[in-house]
Here is the input.
Amino acid sequence: MMAGEGPVSAQRPVTVEAGEVTGSYLADGHTLKSWLLTTDHKRIALLYMAAITAFFFIGGSAAALVRLNLVVPEGLLGSSEAYNRLFTAHGVIMVWFFLVPAVPVTLGNFVIPLMLGARDLAFPRLNLFSWYLFMVGGAITLWALFVGGVDTGWTFYTPLSTSYSKSHVVLAAVGIFISGFSSIATGLNFIVTIHRLRAPGLTWYRMPVFLWSLYSLSVLLVLATPVLAITLLLVLLERLFHIGVFDPAFGGDPLLFQHLFWFYSHPAVYMMILPGFGVVSEIIPAFAHKRIFGYKFLVWASVAIGVISFFVWGHHMFVAGTSLYSAVLFSILSYLVAVPSAIKVFNWLGTLHKGYIRFDAPMLYALGFIGLFTIGGVTGLWLAALAADVHLTQTYFVVAHFHYIMVGGMVSAYFGGLHYWWPKITGRLYPEMWARAAALIMFLGFNLTFFPQFILGYLGMPRRYATYAPEFQVLNVLSSAGSTILAAAYLLPLCYLVWSLLYGERAPANPWGASGLEWRTPSPPPTVNFIETPVVTEDPYEYPPPVAAEPHV
Amino acid sequence: MTMPDRRETAPQGPLDRATIDVRAEAWRLARAWGALVVLGAAELAASYLPLPRGLRPLLMIPAALMVLVVAVRFMEVRRGPAIVRAFAVAAMFWLIVLLGLGSVDPLTRTDFPVDQPRVK
Amino acid sequence: MSDVAVAPGSLAVAAAAPPRHGSGAGVRHDFQYRDPAYQSETAIAGMWLFLATEVLFFGGLILSWIYMRHGSRAGFDAGARRTELVIGTTNTAILITSSFAYALGVIFIRAGDTRRVAKCLAAALALGLAFLALKFGLEWRDDFAHHLFPSDPSFPMRGSAEAGARLFYVFYFIGTGLHGLHMLVGIALVCWIIARVRRGDFSRDYHTPVIAVGLYWSFVDIVWLTLYPLIYLVGRG
Here is the structure.
């Protein structure tokens, strides 16, 4: 497609006389202003990381309260109203303020220019602006959730959100609307950067899979998010003026809302998981010390997922009263999207086969990702099947399914990538033993939390209720117990990563012996990323056999 | 879409130092303006044809042609790097996906309307 | 979108670089680009991608038009027949001409003729303001006077056509309102460009923002060219 566009030639040379800083980006100014007005993609990534971490723990606390409520069948909180607001807060924060942005705006922002051999993104000021949009949108949404909350669920289904809900729908929707433009700005920046700022010799097929994944993700961001914007706008207008776009009493159609919403929100699922694919595709070859298996299949699978994910949204609406023809069409298309996902899993396994595997913490997260994502993906096929979906939809089976993708897949990938690039980002090594322990505890806690929910859903426990039938209690207690383990596992990295900032060992430029341009510059990188623009002469993942390789840390 | 990096061979874009024939370019724009007026008039005239209700969305055809003229002449979509065309095509492709797949459901669905429109 | 100027605080290179206007050698560029022309082309490409997102934004609105008209076609078309075709058609001609005037300005800036650029952009701006005056000063005022706002209790249409006609006016007000908002943004941007032209910021070597804003201005025209038949023509007949 774009492969013929040709590699981009060298950048303007940096000169110390012009005042350009060739020292570490972390030492380039210590004032608050030097952070809040920075246009350095590396510093903006850290600004985003601080925000994302805060949102993760706020959304996690809401989830903890949800699980607490479900310990007893009649509901520990004793209020369905409060319960509705809790799971809505959890969903809204986790989807829009953690899962969709997490990898792209932190790891992606930091690593994309480094992987490209570029000095920055194409539009650095737009990058900073997107952070401010994100913060404003996040602040408004948090405000809505704290002054009383929203009880519609993260999906804002009409007519509940437009006519019946007495909660702060308007405020929350405005916050999400604003943060959506932050997503669009980020995606736009990434696409243009990957097209235009590749180092000399870096052809499309020499790009790491991470870049392809983030490219594909960015296409989703820029083309799906605007539809969410118009959808939320219509909800707002209908709620404020009672004009009837979605209200059948006025001739409107509530299914129109669902079509528009899922046109965004199904691709949004892939916005969350595609960066995870990218991270895992970097970690696996680095720790198997082996060239990635089936590179072209992997990258085109990323592109295929990006395109096909737009064709499948109707599978969220099988029981909503859509036409049978539409349902059959969307069911077939949903099966299609499983093909590139499966290709990826086989490619990772093929890379591991006969590899020289090291079980460092990033690798543990990546291996966990493969297993949990596969379970999440296969159960998705059950839901894409029309007949099975009628039984399983609106039950805990769906909850378990998407948490296997979102938490088991995406959050694992985020932690894996965070550990993998932590030495590059901070210039410090994290404590390996603690990190491995956290990865294992996270895996155990996750499965204990969510596997019982598959069974609960299959047995018919509906989602989004504050109370349940007594025979479901054992499995619910198991799930809640698992969530405490999971919570502890999430707190561990917060502690030891912060510790490593102060006391961690200094990291060399390439602690993992990994290939890729980002490892060819010091840790932490200089403000200009590369003193001299690197020239790429080989394919990605050119790993020498380990006997020839130097011993690493 | 294998476009060689054209900047290497012929200078393009704002730094184009080749002399610009302002008069010829202006005439080209004026012709585009004329084409838009003609198309708009044709669209307006066609709207008076007694088309059945289901076929009246065909009036969008002249509108689509007008959009094309604006994109090619006023926005110069053919100028600049190849990704400009790629972005324009992508926008059209996904618009068609949204409208096409989105209208499968209402066009094939059996609706059971509410009894009477509620009057406020 | 004009990331051509170096942002404050990002680099100290700004002080060392020669002024932006003037001959070709003086055009500065950010350190991630190889030369000013490459950076300019990239900024233009970014603008196109932004417009692609706008296409999908209005795409959601067009999909709702399909749903609303399909659901209650007779009433919907009855609503469309009450629109003021003369104003709508005049406005279409005005916007086409405005877009033409701006495109002419782009040709003059390429030739380095900054005096004529200012004139062309002023004409584009005046036509844009005329559009807004007709649309909101005249047409919307009449619509409100005729109680056509969809939640107006004395909406003039009754009986079987009422629900569809109200839905039509939902689309009408949202569509023209959103387009009007885009026009306002465009007018602010054109004013900004005119001010910079007057200040002598642009030359035949550096005028990326002129082109970028022109793309946006023509895109707003495209949106109107789509809305015009959806509102005024399809339902008439």
